[in-house]
Amino acid sequence: QVQLQESGPGLVKPSETLSLTCTVSGGSITNYYWNWIRQPPGKELEWIGYIYYSGSTNYNPSLKSRITMSVDTSKNQFSLKLSSVTTADTAVYYCARLTIDISGPGYFNYWGQGTLVTVSS
Amino acid sequence: DIQMTQSPSSLSASVGDRVTITCRASQSISNYLNWYQQKSGKAPKLLIYTAFSLQSGVPSRFSGSGSGTDFTLTISSLQPEDFATYYCQQTHTTPWTFGQGTTVEIK
User: A62 and A76 in contact (C-beta within 8 Å)?
Assistant: First the structure.
């Protein structure tokens, strides 16, 4: 059974860089799109972006200037860096695997448990 | 961006009730529509993918329908464990977007 686990600091100061890692177990990171999604407290889900195992990326334009994603296939891990954070970036951050259906559409069928990152001085 | 609008935002229902949640996309997304269930403090769980396909392990009381811009999630007979928030999501065009959620509460 595929499992995902987020890790990283739970508190980040304004203007600094948020860094999170997602470790994949029970399956290979190869041949899938690996995603970051966030949810501010009490609000809806926001897709941040994905990285393919090969390293190609697709970021949400609303965050694109501040995002860097990377992948380490040898460790079965992928990572997110979000720079110049503000209090608006306080959220639960989830990592998730996108599976592509044979007919074309994709869906998130594996999620990490989520990690709360608070931006505060 | 494609906007996803769910209705209602919340509803109260009793165990055994039939519940219907609607999701409308701001432009056609074919069948690139997924439904997730989220319980408090937990990650979302995939229920329905490609508009109508039931994810493995999900009870058959959940069903999805629709294509183009209008979609529906139906719970045929609400069970105690179904009280949660439900989100639709499109994966037709990036940035992929979610609806604002529908909270199903106990009546």
Answer: no
Three-state helix/strand/coil letters over chain B: CCCEEEECCEEEECCCCCEEEEEEECCCCCCCEEEEEECCCCCCEEEEECCCEECCCCCCCEEEEEECCEEEEEECCCCHHHCCEEEEEECCCCCCEECCCEEEEEC
Structure tokens at A69: 């994603």
Residue B30: its chain A contacts at CB < 8 A? Answer: 105
Nearest CB to A61; choose among B42, B44, B95: B95
Q: Residue A105 is nearest to which of B46, B50, B55, comparing CB atoms?
A: B50
A65 contact partners, CB below 8 Å, separation of at least 6: none
Q: Say what percent of chain B tops pLDDT 70.
A: 100
Report the gap between the CA of A39 and the closest CA in chain B (Å).
10
B36 Cβ under 8 Å from any chain A Cβ: yes
Judged on CB neighbours under 10 Å (0-12, 13-18, 19+), A55 is exposed
- For residue A102, the model assigns a pLDDT of 76
Q: How far is CA A103 from the centre of its chain?
A: 25
What would the mean pLDDT of A64-93 be, rounded to a whole number?
97
